[in-house]
Amino acid sequence: MSDSPARYRDVFGVPEFRTLFSLQTLQVAGDSIRTIALSVQIFERTGSPAAAALVFAAGFLPYVAGAALLLSLADRVPSRRLLTGIHLLRLVVTAVLAVGGLPLPVVLALLVAAGLFAPVGGATVQARLPALLPGDGYVLGRSLFTMTSAGAQIAGQAAGGLLLAVLAPAGTLWLAAATAAVAVVLARLRLPDVPARGAPGRSSGAARETWRVNRLLLGDRTTRGLLLAGWLPISLAVGSEGLAVPYAGGLGDPDAAGLLLSAAAAGMLAGNLVVGRWVRPELRERLTLPLAVLTGAPLVAFALAPGLAVACALMAAGTFGLGYELTVQRRLVDAVPEEIRGQAMGLSNSGVMTGQAAGIGAAGALGEVLAPGHAIAVCGAATVVACLALARHLRR
Predict the structure, then answer these.
(1) What is the pLDDT of residue 1?
(2) What is the pLDDT of residues 44-96, one digit of tens each?
(3) Are the C-beta atoms of 57 and 117 separated by less than 8 Å?
(4) Crossing angle, helix 257-273 and helix 137-190, to 10 degrees?
């Protein structure tokens, strides 16, 4: 392994990476714009906060089902064909929603249909990165995807709010559809026609093959440990973000929760930037366990009820440690055969998504019986314990 970190010009010098990077940015920004516009549209029609919240969550709810039933497609279908089809589905769904006038159950069904394939598309992209960016280039490429996804989501939501004032929900939805149309063209014309990675001749259905490979991945001690190392610290630590509003309320300013969450986002971006670009590969390997512990350790100090400035610093310090996940993903890529790499990446990502939802829910329940600061401290302590229990897989 080279002791020099990869450079941005190295990864952006690969044409297919540039295309995949553009597709990811278009998807995250477009879906963020679609979600906020549709939530506003539904609220204006129904006057129901519950309906608006349900629409907001509907794109994420089927993520687990897609991961359980369809992930094998990431290895069995050529990436250009699969990504073109997924972005075409996004285009059709968004355009139909932009037409408007649909009953709420139909709106939800369309969002679920698009959401089912979200983990498959992500798995397909992530599985291509190791082939395009060998060695340390993979780590830098993945860090770029993480940072850009967060940035595109924030920018998409902010832009969506501004666009609603100018274009109204229907016009904003058509703009989201336009981003999907650009993605379709990019995927079809700019991606190479690469054969599928999966073993030839396997004719079992997508669901059966997905279950088979998931059992294989979770049954192997090494891959199971790496998957858990990627899931548990993040899931336990992120529960603290679900308590940002009550904690800020306890400080006398519920609106300050935005500052806490912004600090958490800034810490994550900084961690991926520093760990992915500036830390030497060998040092990054040695820092994996300390960084994982860092995701939870600062949160323990919330038991002392720090003020807003210190609380923001603690949040940022904790999420900086999320850079540990870059090394875990690199090890997972090395541990699985190429023909199931897409599903392995998809299972890893889906577990993180599911775990974060569960972590936030558990933290919210804990906040019913404990003061918010104490509940956040419990999240931090649980994270540290999980990291120590998984030290064999986090330490190199």
Answers:
(1) 46
(2) 888 886 787 678 667 666 777 888 888 999 999 999 999 999 999 999 999 99
(3) no
(4) 100
- The amino acid that residue 110 corresponds to is L
Say how far apart CA 396 and CA 387 lie, in whole Å: 14
What's the half-sphere exposure (Cβ side, CA atoms, 13 Å) at 365?
Answer: 5
Instruction: Give the span between the Cα atoms of 147 and 47, in whole angstroms.
Output: 35
Domains belonging to the chain, first-starting first, are 9-191 (1.20.1250.20), 215-396 (1.20.1250.20)
How large is the C-alpha radius of gyration of the chain? 21
- Region 255-271: mean pLDDT is 85
Q: Which of 287, 355, 282 shows the shortest CA–CA distance to 324?
A: 287
Query: What φ, ψ does residue 375 adopt, rounded to 5°?
Result: -65, -40
> Is the Cβ–Cβ distance between 293 and 384 less than 8 Å?
yes
Instruction: State the Cα–Cα distance between residues 232 and 23, nearest whole angstrom.
Output: 29
Report yes or no: 322 and 271 within 8 Å, Cβ to Cβ.
yes
Ramachandran bin of 365, using left for φ above 0, alpha for ψ from -120 to 50, beta for the remaining angles: alpha
**Tokens (6 digits) for 128:** 């291509």
Q: d(Cα 100, Cα 41) in Å, to the nearest integer?
A: 9
Report whether pLDDT(353) > 70.
yes
Spatial distance between the Cα atoms of 360 and 366, rounded to a whole number of angstroms = 10
Residue 231, φ and ψ in degrees, nearest 5 = -85, -55
Smallest CA-to-CA distance from 356 within 217, 232, 223 is with: 232
Any idea which of 7-16, 157-166, 379-388 has the lowest mean pLDDT? 157-166
Q: At what angle do helices 137-190 and 118-132 cross, to 10 degrees?
A: 120
Read out DSSP for 328-381?
Answer: HHHHHHHHS-GGGHHHHHHHHHHHHHHHHHHHHHHHHHHTTTS-HHHHHHHHHH
